[in-house]
Hints:
- This protein has helices spanning 15-36, 63-79, and strands spanning 38-40, 46-49.
- The termini are far apart.
- The mean pLDDT is 81.
- It has one domain (15-79).
- By secondary structure, the chain is mainly alpha-helical.
Amino acid sequence: MGIEIPENFGTVYNIASQRNVNATQFLLNLETDLSNGNITDANGAVTKKIQPIDVYDRLEYSKKFLILKLLVKLVLPKVM
């Protein structure tokens, strides 16, 4: 007797794939929350409103600002 895990035909469950899916979903949720100005709890409920943060690069941004945004995007995942 064991645990039944639903799978597509020919696939097997593995923890590495699940971690990648969870990490991707976390980053997408973070991007959405920052863009909307929300701070959410683990269940996705909005607990606080903040000033929205534009996470996308725009043509009208200065080169210095774009470099700073790029540095944040590169460094932030390494410290989390």
